[in-house]
Amino acid sequence: MTVKLGLVGTGTVGGGCIDILKNHREEFKRHYGIDVELARVCSRNPEQAIEHGVEDIFTQDFHDILDDSDIDIVIELIGGTTVARDVVLGALRAGKNVVTANKALMATHGEEVMRTAEEAGKEIAFEASVGGGIPIIDPMKHSLIANRIDSVMGIVNGTTNYMLTRMAEDDMPYADVLAEAQAKGFAEADPTADVDGLDAAAKIAILASIAFNSRVTIDDVHAEGIRNITPLDLEIAKDMGYCVKLLAHAHRTEEGIDVRVHPTMLPLSHQLATVNGVYNAIYVVGDAVGETMFFGEGAGSGPAASAVMGDVLEVARHLQAGIPPFVGCTCTDKLPLVPMEELKTKYYIRFAVADRSGVLAAMAGVFASHDVSVHSVIQRGKKDGNSVDITYVTHTAREKSVRAVLADIAKLDDVLREEPSVIRVED
């Protein structure tokens, strides 16, 4: 049996998939007994099709793929939640299995996609939606299902991890590092999704849904980015025995699910602390398996295409063997989401203030008035001599109390109007 594929999207990942099929199709047949044929390719860019040598099976209308009764698996790689949603839902309703790398779609319309797949009796596979080439979706849906997953934490955005690494190791300011990341192709011309934590929020929504068997969408995830992080913050963190990562969190608590993305101070001894550059890592804790970590390149043509084609071959194997769809939507538990304002953790907070007496006393009074206990205070002068940086590290405090502290301290006359650096501390 030859399993026929329809590919929608010929960008970086789509091109990588075409290359893998060209280079390894015979090996797939010889090693695994799986024969996959690229039957149709759809793109808005004919030049990309010509570049990859698939102009003879090219179309600019994805309906040509959906309406082709010979196609068994549709691969959606255009991204977004509009046309891509039409492609994925249309393919499933047309009786085709679907493989996608679309994190935004699965984090926004995942329930609808999974339900449509179930109703059609077809498979939906989305390994490449999180972590690029790192196997994480399949292990969580299969290998780890004997566990109660208690925690998932991840560095799931290579752009910001690269930027924070450069800022820490080379004392480079945010603007310079962002420009370098854009020049190297790690960051988009509009870096908002990366640097504001939105990309990571989509990924942790998907992981949390699988880990806790409860539906989490991107709108449920509190997201903060790295725009206010400076080399000084990273230097102070290192002096304290920490590093700073943009971390995606998903934790099972007595109150419900705690899901968030923000810069986080991690002890240098933590496994995630050593993950630098464009690499990603996802740290999963289960009640039986204990601590596990999945590590690798999180983006790029090769890694993402590897994950996509892994899904394609697995679905093709099921088709050839007559195996019905495997684990679909398991979000049967309706666990409550813990509001961000109820979060309890430690905080690193750095203010720029006028170099005058009485400032520390006034600020200490604000912390005390909101019942936020301070663990330590660090003061560093600035070159101009007129201002200083004052850094507080709190004991465990409630988020809404810390926000109240920030609001009241901002009203003090001697506090400069710069945005304070706020980094939550994970021990």
From TrEMBL:
GO molecular function, one term: homoserine dehydrogenase activity
Residue spans crossing the bilayer: none
Keyword set includes NADP: yes
Residues annotated for NADPH binding in this entry: K103
GO biological process terms, semicolon-separated: methionine biosynthetic process; threonine biosynthetic process
PROSITE patterns in the record: ACT, HOMOSER_DHGENASE, PROKAR_LIPOPROTEIN
Gene3D superfamilies: 3.30.70.260, Dihydrodipicolinate Reductase, domain 2, NAD(P)-binding Rossmann-like Domain
Binding-site residues for NADP(+), renumbered to this chain: V8, G9, T10, G11, T12, V13, G14, G15
Residue ranges of every copy of the ACT domain listed in the record: 348-427
One Pfam family in the UniProt entry: Homoserine_dh
InterPro entries per record: ACT-like_dom_sf, ACT_dom, Asp/hSer_DH_NAD-bd, HDH, HDH_cat, HDH_CS, NAD(P)-bd_dom_sf
Residues annotated for L-homoserine binding in this entry: E188
Co-factor requirement: a metal cation
Catalytic reaction list: L-homoserine + NAD(+) = L-aspartate 4-semialdehyde + NADH + H(+); L-homoserine + NADP(+) = L-aspartate 4-semialdehyde + NADPH + H(+)
Keywords: Amino-acid biosynthesis, Methionine biosynthesis, NADP, Oxidoreductase, Sodium, Threonine biosynthesis
EC number: 1.1.1.3
Active site: K203 (proton donor)
Pathway it works in: Amino-acid biosynthesis; L-methionine biosynthesis via de novo pathway; L-homoserine from L-aspartate: step 3/3; Amino-acid biosynthesis; L-threonine biosynthesis; L-threonine from L-aspartate: step 3/5
Protein's UniProt keywords contain Amino-acid biosynthesis: yes
Family of this protein: Belongs to the homoserine dehydrogenase family.
Summary of the function given for this chain in its UniProt record: Catalyzes the conversion of L-aspartate-beta-semialdehyde (L-Asa) to L-homoserine (L-Hse), the third step in the biosynthesis of threonine and methionine from aspartate.
Full protein name: Homoserine dehydrogenase
Protein species of origin: Gordonibacter pamelaeae
